[in-house]
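This part of the workshop introduces the protein records we will be handling. As an example, a complete record with its sequence and its C-alpha cells follows.
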Amino acid sequence: MFKACPSCGEEYQHWVSRCPDCDVALDLAREAAPGSGAPIAASEAEEREDLVLLHTEGPWYLRELAEALAARDIPSRIVKGAAALGLYVAPGDLEAAREVAQEFAEARLPALDAEPASHDASACPACGEPLAAEAAACGACGLEFPEASG
C-alpha cells in the first residue's frame, strides 16, 4: 500500500508521514478504510491526543513492528519525539498491541534452549584448514586460538 503526495504526486510507503521533497503531510486516510490496520494518518493523529506510546526503538524495528500490527488490524503511528522515535497506538488497542509486540520481540531472539553452535576442532573455523590438536594458531590464515595456549 502506498501513499501519494498531494503536492507533487510522488508515492511513498505507508509508514512515511510527510513528503521529503514538499514537506506536505501524506494522507493515508483517503486510501485506507477505518479499521484496516493501516498506520494512523498524520492528520488523524494530530486530531487524536489519546494515542499512547507502545514502544521506542530504531526506525527499522518500529517500521517492522508497525507492519506486524497492521497485519493484525491494529493501527499505529511512528512519531519522532525529542529524544527518540516512538510507536503509538490507540488506548483501546494497547493490550492487543502489547501482545503483538511481545511476539514480535520473541521471534527475533535466539532460542535459549538450543544447542550452541559447534565446530570441528580438527579444522580452522575461519578457513577450514586442517589443524593439529594442540595448535595455538592456524598456519594457513593466522587465526589464533587463545584457549589452546592457556
User: Anything to note?
Assistant: The longest helix spans residues 94-108. The chain has a mean pLDDT of 77. The two ends are 58 Å apart (CA to CA).
